User: Fold these one by one.
Assistant:
Number 1:
Amino acid sequence: MTDESINSLNNQTREAWNATAQVWDERMGDEGNDFHRYLVRPAIEKLLELKPGQRMLDIGCGNGLTTRRLASLGAKVTGIDFASEMINNARKRTNLYQENQELIEYQVLDATDETALLKLGENSFDAAVSAMALMDMAEIEPLFKALIKIIRPGGYFIFAIQHPCFNSMHISLGGELIENETELYTEYYLKVKGYLKSSKIRGLALENQPQPHIYFHRPLHSLLNTAFQFGFVLDGLEEPAFPEEIAARSNAIGWSRFNKIPPVIVARLRI
C-alpha cells in the first residue's frame, strides 16, 4: 500500500473508534467483556514479568481497562490511543475510580507513527502491552521499529489479538443438529474461508456500534516476521479458549460455545 492509502485507512479507523468510544466504554466498563475477563487478561498476566515500579506502555489502551489493571499491580503506566474520545473516557474512569492515579498517564498518540512513538523516549519502558489492538492498525511496522528503541534491553512486548487462524472476518461459526439412537444434540463447527493472505474488511466489534471499523487480517507468519525483522524473538505464547462451564451455559452460537478452539492468541516478544 502507498503512504497515502495507509494514511487514509488510518484516518478512517480513527474516525470509527472515536464514533464508537461511548458505546465501547459503556460495554467494557472497568472489568471488560467475557473475552477480556476469561481470555485476554488471564493470558496477558500469565506472561507478565511485572515488578512494582516498572514502567509499562499500554498500546491502544481504549478506555484504559488494561492501563488501570497494570497500575493496580504496581506498574507505572502510560496508556496511548489515537482516538481522542477513547482517551477522554479513560481519563474520566481513572479520575473517578482509580486509587493509584499517580501511576497512570494517558496520551493521544498514534501507534502507527514512529516519530511520535520515539518522542516517548529511548529506553523509557521496561515492557509494553497491547490488548486486542494490533488487528485494528493499518500498519504495524512503525510500531515494532519504535518499540525496539523505547523498550529497555531485555524488555518485552506482550500483545493479544484475535487468533488469525480461527477468529477473523473470514470465518463463520455454525451449529448442526445431530440425532442418533440415544440422543439429540447440537454439534458446533468453525468454517475458515481465508487465512494466508493479508486483508482488510469492515466489521463490528459490538452490537449497536454506531460505525463499523476496519479489521486488518494478518496471518501469523506476516505478523511475527515483522517482529523478527526488527530484533524481537518469541519466547511466550498462549492460546486461551473459553472454560467448559462457560460453553455449557451458553445457548447462542458464539465463541463462548467453543472450549477447544482459541479465539485469541497472546504472545510475548522479547528484545
Note: The first helix runs from residue 3 to 28.
Number 2:
Amino acid sequence: MSTVIGRGAALLVAMVLALGLAACGDDDGTGEGDGTTSTTADTTSTTSTTEAAEQEAEDPEGEAVPVGVYFVRDEKVAAARADVVPPATARGAIEALLGGPAGVQGAEGMTSEIPDGTELLGLSIEDGTAVVDLSGEFTSGGGSLSMQLRAAQVVFTLAQFDTVAEVTFHIDGEEVDALGGEGVPAAGVDRTDFGGVTPLVLVTSPLPGEEVGSRLVVEGISNTFEANVLYEVVGAGGTTLAEGFTTASAGTGTWGDFRVEVELEGGEPGPVTLVAYQENMEDGGRQDVYEVPLQLR
C-alpha cells in the first residue's frame, strides 16, 4: 500500500527519523549502530570505505612492496625489481619502468628501449584487460626490434599481476591499430606475442636483489627441449648450494610455466646467484643461461 504524504508531514517524519538515528548512534564513532544509514549517499560512502579497507589489508598503504619491472638485456626482456607503495602497485610498476633502470634494484647491465620523456597518461584494469595510455614519445624513433622490446617491457610488467591477462595500448588518449610504423600489435596482446624478444629461460621470481631464506621458490617461463629447466644456486667462492631440474608445463617450441622449491644447504649469509638454463643436447653444456643475483639472509 502506498501513502501520499504532504510536504509538512514529510518534513516532520524526516526530523523524527534524524533524531532517532542520532539516539542510536555508536559512542566510538564507527557509525555502525544498528546497520542503518541515513541516506543513499552515506551507503555509497560506506561501501567505498569498506572496499578501500579490504585493499589496504591486503597491501597496507605506506609499506612498499617489491614488483617486477622489465628492462632489456642482450636484446631480450629481463626482470628487475622496484619497490612501490600500494594500493596502486600496477601504476607504480609502470611509473618505475618509465623511469628507466637507473636506481632500480637489480638492474645492473640492463637498458630500456622506452624513449625518454614517455609519460603514463592513464591505466585501467577491467575483466582481465589492462588499458595503458602512454604519451606519443613511446612510439617515436627506433626500428622493429626496438618497438617490440618496448611493447614487451610494458606487457611483461603488467602481466605479473593476477588481474591482467592481456594489454591494450592507447597513445595520447587514442586507440591505435599498431605501435609506430612497425606493425607491432597494440590491442589484446600478452606475453606470448613477444616470443622473439623473450629469453628461452626467464625467471620471474625471485627478483634480482631480493632477500631469500634457506627455502627458495623459483618461478618463470620457458621454451626448452622437452620442457626441462635446470638450475643451480651458487654461493660465495663458487660453492654450489643447490642444483637440480624441473619440468615446465610445456616446451619444445611452446612456452610453458615452471615452478620449483629449492632447499639451500650450507650457505652463509650474503650474496648468492641463481642460475637457470637448459642443457645443450650436442655437448651437454649450458645454454640460454639466465642469472639472478640474490641475498641469502
Note: Residues 101 and 108 are 8 Å apart (CA to CA).
Number 3:
Amino acid sequence: MTEDQLELLRSSVREFADKVVRPVARQIDRDNEVPRDVIKQVADMGYFALRVPQEYGGPGLSTLESVIVVEELAKASGAIAIMATVSGTMVAYPLVHYASPELKERYLTRLAKGAIGAFALSEPCCGTDAAAITTRAEKDGDEFVINGRKTWITNSPYADFFLVAARTGRPEDRHRGVSLFVLERSPCIEVSKLDMMGYRGSGTSEVLFKDCRVPAENMIGGLNEGFKIVMDALNEGRVVTAATALGLAEAAFEDAFAYSRQRETMGVPISEHQMVQYMLAEMKMRVEAIRLLVYEAARKVDAGDPEYPMWSSIAKLAAAEWGVDVARMAVQVEGGFGYSKESIVERIYRDIKMVEIGDGTNEVQRMVILRTLTGKIRAPRKT
C-alpha cells in the first residue's frame, strides 16, 4: 500500500473503533466479556483474519497494515486489539505458512468468514519454558488423542477452533518432541475464564483437554516439528503485539494531554506547570519512538529481512517498557482521577502491563536480540 492507502486504512479502522468499540470499552473491562454483537461486527470487518490471504477470502494484510489496524483498535479497547492479534496473526501464521492445502482451505476460509481462533501454548508449568510442555497427543490409528491443561489462552470462550501445541515425543526431547494441531471446539474442551488484571474481556482462560480426538491430518507441519512453527509465529506476531502497546500508549498520552489543559490548579491549567510539561514531553517522546520502532520492525518482517526476529523483539521490548512508562505518567498527570475507574488511563495502565509478559517476557526479548546478533536465530524460509 502507498502512504495514502495506509492512511485510508487507518481512517477506516478508527471510524469503526470510535463507533462500535469505544462506547463499550468500559463495559468490556467491567464485565470481563465482549458482547456477542460487537464480536460479530469486528469479525465482519475481517479483523480476526488480518493475515489471511485474499485467495481464501481474507483481507491479506501485510504486517505493517496489520500493525495499523491493531494500533487503532487498541486506542479504543486493548481487549479487542489483542483478540484480533491472536486470531488474525498468531493463529493465521502457522496455517498460512505450514499447513497442508486441505487445512488452509478449511480453516483460513473459516477465519475469513468470521471464525475466531485461539493459540494454545502456555501451561501452568511452562510459560517462558515452552519446550517443557506436558500436554500430550497420543497416536491412535488415524487420530491423535490430546490430554492436558493450557492456561492464559486468549480468545478461549469465543474460539471456534484451537491451535494446540502438544508433546508427541519424550519429555527429555523437549522442543524436538512437540507437534502442532488444529482442534475443533467440542465438549472435550473445558474453558475456565480467568479474572485477569488487564485485557479483560479478551477471554484469557485455562483450557482443559480431556481425551480430545483429532484426525492425524490436522497436524500442522510434520511430527515433532511444532515447536519451530510456534517460535516462528511468535517472532512475527510480536510486532503486532507491540502495536497494541503503541495504541494504548497513544490513547494514554492523548487523554492525559487533554486532561492537563482542562484541569486547573493555582489559577492555571496544569499543563502550564513545568513538571507536568516535563511528563507530557516524555510521554510524547516515548510514543513516537515506539511508533518508529514498531513500523520499522513491521517493514523488516514484510521484506523478509533475515534479522527480523531481532527487530520484532526490539519493537516489543521498547513498546512494553516505554508504553508502561507512558501509562504510568498519564495516571500521574491525572492524579486522583487517573487512579479511579472513571479514568481511561487506569484501564490502559492495567492493559499495557501485559505486553511486558505475554508473547515472551521482556527478559526473553533481550535473549532473542542477543541470539540474533550471534547468528543463532534467523528468519525462516516461508512457503
Note: The beta strands are 117-120, 136-140, 143-153, 161-167, 178-184, 189-193, 205-215, 219-220, 264-265, 268-269.
